[in-house]
Amino acid sequence: MRWRFQPGRWLLVVALFLIAGCASPIRATDQNSQNNSFWSGRLALNVDADQAQSFSAGFELKGNAETGELALYNPLGSTLAVLAWAPGSATLRSNDQTRNFGSLDELVRHAIGAAIPVAALFDWLQGVNTPVPGWQADLSQLAGGRLVARRSAPTPAAELRLALEK
């Protein structure tokens, strides 16, 4: 049987490849829903110190306050660091090195440059406004994929912004 070029079929094949290239992998559960423990998007942290500090990265957060993982990515999608914690363990994997820390708070402070309340962050992402001394979380835009939390004490002031992927 001889193959003949048919423009209509060729366009259909090209269209299928283009559509397949735009597809995203399906997760076992809806990402960023209130019933799971996986979120991803972009985060930015600004600290109003004598020398202002800012940090931004893509992120994937999974698990819970006791056992979890926070992966940070640069704008090109390369892994900057992976923070992992479990009872009695807090590790930072970065640049093919692993470093252990005494607590999740110490790990986050070292990796990001400022303390953020990771335990409360899980609640905030689920729409629960868990109070944290010195922090004020604004959950009013959470349905639109936005979360902002501000720290007034201890100084210096800081602002954490998350933009979640849908």
Automatic annotation (TrEMBL):
It is a lipid-anchor. Its main location: membrane. Gene3D superfamilies: Lipoprotein localisation LolA/LolB/LppX. It comes from the Bacteria. SUPFAM superfamilies: Prokaryotic lipoproteins and lipoprotein localization factors (SSF89392). GO terms for cellular component: cell outer membrane. It is found in: Cell outer membrane. The keyword Membrane applies. GO terms for biological process: protein transport. Residues 1-28 form the signal peptide. The keyword Acyltransferase does not apply. Keywords: Cell outer membrane, Chaperone, Lipoprotein, Membrane, Palmitate, Protein transport, Signal, Transport. It holds the Pfam family LolB. Belongs to the LolB family. Monomer. This is Outer-membrane lipoprotein LolB. The lineage of its organism: Bacteria, Pseudomonadati, Pseudomonadota, Betaproteobacteria, Burkholderiales.
